[in-house]
Every structure is written in structure tokens, then in C-alpha cells.
């Protein structure tokens, strides 16, 4: 009755602004995606995309991304089973953002634990696991609305992230979760919208916070799940 859960993740903007932290987040986000499907993270592969490594800034990006990826994988006990490195991804004017794409595979112990994103029925309670912080740097909101890729990217506490994954998996296994969605690109507002798409079931939510509205709705604080 076992099944596999798989996810790919990477935010090139994060890795451009902070390569080591961006790579940690790529691994952490893939792990949370797998967990939100009911799977325990097991291993990763990767596709590391960078510009010319003879450029010292590019080489720095590469070295920092590999270090961040390794740190996260040790925390989640997800060995790197393989992967590839692609250099010289650039034109005469610029290089691609450092993009260490993570492919994560997880094990769902029983198919009854398979969990999907969308809200299932009216009248269900909606919960948010995780603390929302005033973190708007590097966000999809800044890029899309203000055409800026700048600022301090969200922090990531790998130990807290692992505890969040363990909590979610326990809730799924005991049958308390009907749907689960991690909060990533676009923040809380986008994640809630994604939960409404499939069944066309909307949501009424009350959010109490002193954080300014754009950061509250579209900030991309890590280690958060809607369920």
C-alpha cells in the first residue's frame, strides 16, 4: 500500500540574493511539499545551473549553494543520490540566476495518507502551522508588482522546519488533515487561493497580525502550512 511523493523546487531569486540560504530553502521547500502530500522525505537529486565558474562571483554562488544544500540534506537525512551541474548558462550581458533545482522523493507509508492541496468540503476549519514574519525581500510580490529583486530573503531554521514536517505527517497519519498546502511563492494569499482552485470551494479567514498588509499577505516566510 506504499506510494511515492515527488517534488521539484528552487527559487533563483533567493539564490541570487543569498546563495547559501537560498539553497537551504530549496531543499526545505521540496521536503515540505513532499510532506504536504503525506510522504516522509527520503532522498534528493539535483540540477545545478550557473554561469561561468571562472567568474569569481559565479564560483562563489556555486560553492555557497552546494554548502547550503548539504547542510539542509544532513538535517532532513535526505542523501543526494545523483544530479548534474550545468555551467556557462549566460549571454554576453548576464548569467542566469544561480538555480540549484532540487528533486525530492518521499515515501507515503499507506495510500490512505495521500493528501492533496484543495479544500474538500464546506464547514471545515482552516489552520496555519508556523509563525508569519515581516519578510518581503526577494518575494514574487516585489518582482511582479514593483519589478524589484532585492532585499533580505526569508530566514530558515532547519530544525524548526523539520519539526514542522514531523508534526504535519503525524496529523496526516492520525486522520486529522483533509488537505495541506505549504506556503511558498506568493505567500499566504496565493496559497489560500491555490487551495480553492480545484473544487471551487472558497474560504473565509480571519488573520490577526501587526504586520503590514502587503507583507502579511504576500511575504514568503518559510516553514508554514495551511491545512
Q: Percent helix among the residues?
A: 25-40%
Shape designation: globular
Strand content: 15-25%
Structural class: alpha+beta
Mean pLDDT: 96
In order across it, which strands form the biggest sheet?
Answer: 1-4-2-3
| N-to-C span | 24 Å
Radius of gyration: 18 Å
By DSSP, the count of extended strands is: 7
What string, H for helix and E for strand, traces the elements in order? EHHEHEEEHHEHHE
Largest sheet: 4 strands, mixed
Helix count equals 7
Low-confidence parts: none
Q: Keyphrases for this structure?
A:
three-stranded antiparallel beta sheet; 227 residues; 7 strands; 7 helices; 18% strand; alpha+beta; four-stranded mixed beta sheet
Summarize the structure.
The chain contains 7 helices and 7 strands; from the N terminus they run βααβαβββααβααβ. It has helices spanning 12-17, 19-36, 56-76, 140-146, 158-173, 187-196, 213-218; strands at residues 3-9, 40-49, 80-86, 99-108, 128-129, 181-182, 225-226.
